[in-house]
């Protein structure tokens, strides 16, 4: 029987790359994101390998009720979830302490941090019941060191996500559940277009690509259950 993974932010960037990589390894997938058309495009790019099932789950991860509904739908379809990859994330152009609005602050925390927490809490009971599960949180090197380039709300959300990952390992290790925080440097994804001054093509070519981060996710997932990569930092060479 194929294993099942839930991937948030699956409509673009790292989430899409992770979904495609898992599809190539014959995982069943629940693809989570706000835009149904983008999720459907990910399914087409994954190529629907024989025996694979992709469940498209439009969902705003910042909405706890919507996340609960997504989790119930996924478990009803597949019966279990072996892996959760929290790759949903966003930013805003006006991101400094001086410029950040209350509305944008709340939206960034809801998407980047609260959404991951909601997904984890929705799927943990089923993982505990099976005494097995891997959670991978896509953080950022801004979760290691604050950066004006990243902006205050983004930095806060990523430091929080790193702490959430540590808490999972501290509390759930005895339940057979492990968590990995991946801290990438700059990645060439659509979130770059939200910078105050988006980088030019020549700068993007020197950055990490989403597939590089997806390879790190697969490393954390495919290790034997006795081993945990608790943190993984990846930067452009």
Can you tell me about this structure?
The structure is a single chain. 42% of the residues are buried. Helix 1 runs parallel beside helix 2, helix 1 crosses helix 7 and helix 3 packs parallel to helix 4. The protein has one domain: Rossmann fold, CATH 3.40.50. It is built from seven helices and seven strands. The chain has a seven-stranded parallel β-sheet with strand order 3-2-1-4-5-6-7, with helices on both faces. 45% of the residues lie in helices and 16% in strands. It has 237 residues and is α/β, with parallel strands linked by helices.
Give the topology.
Layout: E1 4-8, H1 13-24, E2 28-33, H2 36-46, E3 54-58, H3 64-78, E4 83-86, H4 102-130, E5 133-138, H5 152-172, E6 177-184, H6 201-205, H7 210-222, E7 231-234
Helix pairs in contact: 1-2, 1-7, 3-4, 4-5
Summarize the structure.
The chain is of the alpha/beta class and about 240 residues long.
Radius of gyration, CA atoms, in whole angstroms:
17 Å
Would you give the CATH topology?
A: Rossmann fold
Strand content: 15-25%
Summed up, the helix count is 7
- What's the total count of β strands? 7
Number of domains: 1
Named at the architecture level, the CATH assignment is: 3-Layer(aba) Sandwich
List the strand order in the largest sheet: 3-2-1-4-5-6-7
The structure class reads alpha/beta
* Morphology call: globular
Q: Can you identify the CATH class?
A: Alpha Beta
Helicity range of the residues?
A: 40-55%
String of helices and strands: EHEHEHEHEHEHHE
User: Poorly predicted ranges (pLDDT <50, ≥5 residues)?
Assistant: none
Q: Name the CATH superfamily assignment.
A: NAD(P)-binding Rossmann-like Domain
From the N-terminal CA to the C-terminal CA, the straight-line distance is 38 Å
